[in-house]
Write a structure and sequence with these properties.
With about 475 residues, the protein is mainly β. The protein has a domain of about 220 residues: Thrombin, subunit H, CATH 2.40.10. Helix content is about 5%, strand content about 25%. It is built from 3 helices and 22 strands. It has a 6-stranded antiparallel β-barrel. The protein has a 6-stranded antiparallel beta barrel with strand order 2-3-4-7-6-5. A two-stranded antiparallel sheet has the order 14-15. Strand 3 and strand 4 form a beta hairpin. The relative contact order is 0.15.
Length: about 475
Amino acid sequence: MGGSVHPALAACAAAATIAAAGCAADAGGASPAARRAAIVNGEADPYDFGVVALSFGGSSFCTGTVVSPHIVVTAAHCVDPAEIPDMWIKVGEHAASGVPIPVVDGVVHAEYDGGSNDIALLVLAAPAPVRPWPVNRTAFDASWLGREVRLVGYGVTDPNGGGGGRKREGIAAISNFDALDFAYASAPAQTCFGDSGGPAFVLVDGVEVLAGVTSRGDADCAEIGIDTRVDVYADWIDTYVALYEDADPACDADGLCAANCGAPDPDCPCEADGVCSDACDALATDRDCPPHCDYDGVCEAAEDDCPAPDRDCHPTQAVGEPCEFDTSCIDGACIGGVDDPRATYCSTDCSTDGDCPADMFCGDGVCRYEAPSPGAQGWPCTADSECVEELCVVVDDDTNARICANKCAADSDCGDGDTCQRARGGAVRVCLPQPGGCGCRAGDTPPFAGALAFACAVALGLSRRSRACPRARPRTKK
């Protein structure tokens, strides 16, 4: 933890130069798309609004934490100062559909050496509409060993890729620490590629604080993670917060979310403030609201403890629209697709095709879509959140056309007309149309990139979490 740059990095850089598509020795010189490090064994997290995705070119690659209205803490290896004008943060559970805010400035810690001091700050063009997280200012001691940490990030859910772009949380336990970093063991969660720069939250005196910034870990995302200690850099963070913030957020309606308010701040009604309010557009994202107030598949007779009517009792989705439960649908039937039962949409009884919307047919007595079903393999999409496997991939570089794609290991995992290929701009293999249709084109993964990635991973042992390079991942499965 917190040591000098491993000599193998230099060799990896040389090989990457020759290959023209390998691991970057210095993450500061690699494009964000090549510097990705989701929480493995974690759960979806719709609540932590102050944890945001870092985005470049429309794709998320790292995670960060809002510590003041305009300041985001992340990992140094996620930030190339030359590329800051093209960076954004995304606020929301899904990076693809999150609220975008451009980044206008940033600073990488002056003593970052590729390993230790792996911390950086980003400055936002507009205040983030979230409550800032308090920074840990308590020094580590022996009592911290074994303490639980809550990890949050937008990364992949296994080292082979897939599941990235959705915010997840999980629990680990501190196993060791030194002057600059700390390590945590899976309990059972662990960080993985794409979680770089994300937070490790710890309870201190009953308050959850930002204690760590995800830096690196074992290549299988299974045993150990290493974070930068935030308490060591608290004064450094304060310096830049004071430089870029004109005033502290107030607890009234000033357009900024404040912390520690005696009453809920009207600028952020969905935050955990002890009140379940109908000012929150999505009650399922408010920790203060009972879960049955939003869609859960059950229409509760009593709605007295909900600030708005139980949405299961008031369905809104028409025939053909996506759904999760029967209670979501006006006609009361949420069915799975003919090609993928996970692709669910609202339906209704029918006798002929004329009983169904124009783009559906009558099959087995209900209105259905021909394949592909909405969200299934091959369905046209614009965001990962529209797809059953949360993978919306480019199939035509000229038009930027995208389809939902399912993960695969071999061609046999794919349907007729599709082959298992590496997705453009990603490390995961998915089912895509065969070459000659919308298949691979020049610029896809060279045949030696995988070998180069494996060599880097073996040489490094512990790989940077955000460098899930789309063309050569140093965090290669053993």
